[in-house]
UniProtKB/TrEMBL annotation, chain A:
Protein name stated in the entry: Carbon-phosphorus lyase complex subunit PhnI
GO molecular function ontology, one term from the record: lyase activity
Keyword Lyase included in the entry's annotation: yes
Any one of the GO BP annotations: organic phosphonate metabolic process
Alphabetically ordered keywords of this record: Lyase
Domain of life of the organism encoding this protein: Bacteria
A Pfam family annotated for this UniProt entry: PhnI
UniProtKB/TrEMBL annotation, chain B:
Biological function: Catalyzes the breakage of the C-P bond in alpha-D-ribose 1-methylphosphonate 5-phosphate (PRPn) forming alpha-D-ribose.
Organism of origin: Pseudooceanicola sediminis
GO biological process: organic phosphonate catabolic process
Record-stated family: Belongs to the PhnJ family.
E.C. numbers: 4.7.1.1
Protein name in the entry: Alpha-D-ribose 1-methylphosphonate 5-phosphate C-P lyase
Catalytic activity field: alpha-D-ribose 1-methylphosphonate 5-phosphate + AH2 + S-adenosyl-L-methionine = alpha-D-ribose 1,2-cyclic phosphate 5-phosphate + methane + 5'-deoxyadenosine + L-methionine + A + H(+)
Alphabetized GO MF terms: 4 iron, 4 sulfur cluster binding; alpha-D-ribose 1-methylphosphonate 5-phosphate C-P-lyase activity; metal ion binding
InterPro entries assigned to the protein according to its UniProt record, in alphabetical order: PhnJ
Keyword set, alphabetical order: 4Fe-4S, Iron, Iron-sulfur, Lyase, Metal-binding, S-adenosyl-L-methionine
One family name in Pfam for this protein: PhnJ
Keyword ATP-binding: no
4Fe-4S in keyword set: yes
Amino acid sequence: MYVAVKGGERAIDNAHDWLAEERRGPQDVAELDVAQIRTQLGLAVNRVMAEGSLFDPDLAALAIKQSRGDLIEAIFLIRAYRTTLPRFGYSTPVDTGAMACDRRISATFKDVPGGQVLGPTFDYTHRLLDFALEAEGLQRSEAIAPEAHPVMPRVSQFLNQEGLIQDEPRPEVDAVPGDLTRAPLELPATRALRLQALARGDEGFVLSMAYSTQRGYAKNHPFVGELRIGTVAVEMEIPELGFAVEIGDVVLSECETVNQFTGSKTEPPQFTRGYGLVFGQTERKAISMALVDRALRWKELGEDDKGAPAQDEEFVLYHADNIQATGFLEHIKLPHYVDFQSELELVRKLRREADARVRPTEAAQ
Amino acid sequence: MSAYNFAYLDEQTKRMIRRALLKGMAIPGYQVPFASREMPMPYGWGTGGVQVSAAVMVPEDCFKVIDQGADDTTNAVSIRRFFQATAGVAVTEKTAEASVIQTRHRIPERDLRQGQILVYQVPIPEPLRFLEPSEVETRKMHALEEYGLMHVKLYEDIARHGDISTSYAYPVKVEGRYVMDPSPIPKFDNPKLGMAAIQLFGAGREQRIYALPPHTDVVSLDFEDYPFQAGKADHDCDLCGAGSSYLDEVITDDAGGRMFVCSDTDFCRERREAGHVGALGVEAVA
């Protein structure tokens, strides 16, 4: 006698208990605390903040702890929390030109006013496992912190003095950029919305899209005009006061690419720009974003549609979000036996019919 | 859960969703874009359905959730618990008692009545998506009522296989205007789409809502010489003996032995309690 499978509720409870136990791991190993994650796994925290679209290092660190280090899961936790938060308003545009930079480099000029500042980068490390890190409590040489942050004018503005680079088209002063998280994405999207989608898009996806342009799928000859990482003040207009006050600061990575452009039917030869701006120290993402932004601007610059994936706004924007992607991908784990049953019946029926068509011929032979 | 509003979503969001629902009801079968929120369960787990249920739910509601027709599948349990925790509404497994029923992949066997709401979880709301991947293009095709591509697909199926090779998510035409995806229900369920209850469809990841008001004219696409046929396994339920319900095939032993049981667990239970016994069933304990 068959009894239909019951016990979904108990199975779920048990799975949750087991998950909690696995997350904690063996009791004889000290538990990670959120401050350790925040301060020692800072780049993971940055990625979670960037793709979670919420600047809060403590919450991001908590999410990483809760998700056992699965960053997409952590991003999901942050997104699901973020969406419940009320909107008090929008900040005034942040002035990244006034950024207190920890890192600032330009690949287009040997030296620039304000200097090249490497900052805490992996760039020139040799990727050799440092077994000394296995030992705890080692004293490390201390970095010499810069005394003050010098003024660092934008590199692109030097090119602009000669009129060699296209001005960033300025939106109307009063134009409020759309909000991807409050209105459904409709196409064609404005550049502001495209940048929003890229800024919270999956780092791996945006990286691969950017990489594809470098390999020839809508190549756009990018130079890193400037990459800067540092702290900027966030200001908000308070209606009762009538002026903007500083409400906090955020760390941003900003990348401006300078792209060769030989001109089109509508535009003269000049350098053009791609732009990337991401929460935290996340420069791989910021550079990737700038390349993809530039590739998506083909229409506005009168370039040819080369049919490349990175030029296809719908393709890029609809597939960049890893929370959407992972959800839909993983949902095929859920039961589908009703659909499958109807497919079973269909295939059986088609086979019967095919059989009936083949059999008489065989008999004749 | 007191940190969250009734049924989780804030009232502004519910209002936005209700507007989309009203528009959907006014234009049956039309896909209304809405600003879908991230929910505390993943996309693909029914976030569209959950948002629609949250938007229509009132404290007096009695809520039922089914997945594959069953109340006890894990995701149905999870969604039911979510609303128990966030809305504190009464829940039931009985189709007749429920005022709001959220479903994935099935329509209950028992006829729904006026006043009930059936909320569908929809993965891909666009019936033309597998013929044309671009959303920009498919929206244009709906606007121009340009459905030739779909008819060609159905025709080619018949030419190639002798049959239309779509067995679930079978496309329908609504009130002679919009071609609509009824969500991945087996085509067996299609004839019930003109029901007396309100039917609401939510696709969270794709940010679309659509609706069928009561007694809407819903026609499964077909040809005069190849009329639509709703199919099911050619068996009776082995537990309750029902001959007209949609059946799941269950593999029962290593030798590939199998039995067929109602996919609608509440329907099957009700019949067994009424004394019906299938070939492999035992009499219900009263």
